Amino acid sequence: MYANAPLIGAPGGRARLDTPALVVDLPALKRNISRMAALAQARGIALRPHVKSHKSARIARLQIDAGAHGVSCATLGEAQVMVDAGIRGVLVTSPVVGEHKVHRLVELARKAGPRAVMAVVDHPDNVAELASAAASLAFPLGVLIDYHAGYGRTGVTDEHAALALAKRIGEAAPLALRGLQAYGGNLQHIGERAQREAAAAALRARIVKIVETLQAAGIELEIVTGVGTGTHDIDSSDEVFTEMQVGSYVFMDAEYAQVLSAASDTRFETSLFVQSTVVSVNAPDWVTVDAGIKSFATDSGIPLAARGIDGPSQYAFFGDEHGKLVVDAPHRPTLGAHIEFVAPHCDPTVNLHQVYHIVDGDTLVGIWPVDARGHF
User: What is the CATH number of domain 5-23+268-369?
Assistant: First the structure.
């Protein structure tokens, strides 16, 4: 039984949680999902949202019910969790390499059925590896060519490499080329919108070059996938991409709240918080809370106090289990006070917690597992 389960449905349960606790505002979450779905529908672009942000089959189901035609997964383990939950249209967005993982992928595809699971490839050796394992399937395994659109972590480097790889896939009967992945992760947090637009336009031009090169060789692509929360309303403005892999929009975080600040940016709400308790008030200039580096990701700045405190404050990491909250004397919270923070980076923050505490207003309405946490 979850520690906070007795509070489900109790009046004021949100303010009585044992902490640290990962909290999701359910109405805000649903509004974010609806806003992105409405934008996608209006612009004629499909949604295959990325579950690496929430790692939750329940939230993925909300996205599917709102119109998404599948999900994107960073790891094979995430994909297995989604398929086990009955979700199809699953794309594994990182290359699946090595005998054991390739076997897992093929068995997952077998379980899910035709066209239900896809993988990306960026090297001919991986094409051969996948083709050999997929020969046992009764249907071809769908693959997408991965293009290194930004960071260069994975992907082919140009249109010539893409064409060569497409030809290798075409020669592998157990595989079916479904499309191209071009996720510009380096674009998503460019703060100045005009610079973000220019960088996104440059990427789309490179994608068009790849698509046209393949078309000239008689190779058509059904799918061109990519697009993150930071460029969702930019990259959906023309017909280069056929679908978006947006992820963080469901929660938002401190970093994205700063990025999506222009008047032309879609307004998504913060729906994810980490609730903490003030456990010491003896220091003259700060209070100590019970949420430290085991409760927040530390790669993207500091948490922002959002609920339970009046006036300005400054958080600082204070060890594994604790945080320091510097607060002016008139606004100092009392011992035992509950304070909710906006996470600096939602994806890795979620990965630190086992469950979501789902709230509607001040009421705890459910506790949902972070299903795909720890699945690789």
Answer: 2.40.37.20
